[in-house]
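FAQ: What does the model actually see?

It sees only this:
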Amino acid sequence: MRHEDLLYVLALLKAEGIGDVTAKKLISICGSAEAVFKTPLSKLKGIGKGAENMLRQLKSPSLFIAAEAELNFIQSQGIQTAYFLDDNYPERLKHCFDGPMLLFSQGKINFQNRKIISIVGTRQVTPHGAAFCKQLIADLAPLDPIVVSGFAFGVDIIAHQAAIEQGLQTIAVVAHGLDQLYPKAHQKYVPQVQENGGLLTEFCSGTPPEKENFVRRNRIVAGISEATIVIESAEKGGSLITANRAFDYNRDVFAVPGRPTDKYSQGCLQLIQSQKATLLSSAADLVYHLNWEINQPKKAVQKQLFVQLDEQEQKVYDYLAKTGKEELDVIALACELPIYRLSGLLLTLELKGVIRPLPGKLFEAI
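And it is asked to produce this:
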């Protein structure tokens, strides 16, 4: 986007009371942000209730003073922008009626990858939740998804770290301007996140991480992705807000179940019971429900000589090679593995081209 065009977009963004929905409506009527400022107010009054008072401020020179300062900040900090009508704007977010008019980012974000998932959950993550999150991302790594989260304590930062460890792109959606960071304790993770993805926000510089901004941030986390995954959540919290927004956007929502007596399983169970989320027990569930294709060349001879398998993978493969096709539960019992762990191993073996799934939860060695 040209600097002159960006200046008008920023000026419209600075106009108090004109939110993303109204701003995009004005641009649609006038043809561009610049045209909004050059169109007589008498032709814009039909956009909604209280339009006259709201639009009158478009004539204020202070908007362009603030926009100029913001543009200087963007240029000095090497910040990238994505306008909702441009090609570099996240495709799925374009279809959200209340999606941000403009996004700011720092790092190496690339939205060309169509496999984008959001992972959210409680800040008070349990050891089981942390382990599940790491294992899920490790099992999905061969499919190279982008992992989106909110950079908060708990599940969020674990998801970002796990994605980086697996060499995946990760996007941290923050609830403030890019001249600051919340939580400050996560400053140490910023270089790695920017090298493997980046920070993303809709907020101009000087915007603090106020409570209402996190709710707005959550709609980006939900709208940007193909699916939202809730690892752990209490009965109330930001994770459920994100999940509900994803559901409203007609996105797939997944929730990891837990014991009914566990505090941080209540939110997930609530989502599953209300049929807003699909139960997620392993990466294989996600791949199946999202219909992600696994395109791996078939290898018919001595696969263990050409494919590296770890100890557990080799154990499962050897069992199937010996017995032929077998049911999931039987494999778990024979190999002494819990179902959730076996499901991830089977997905990995499928990605490596050494086994294949069959109808009826059957698997066989190729």
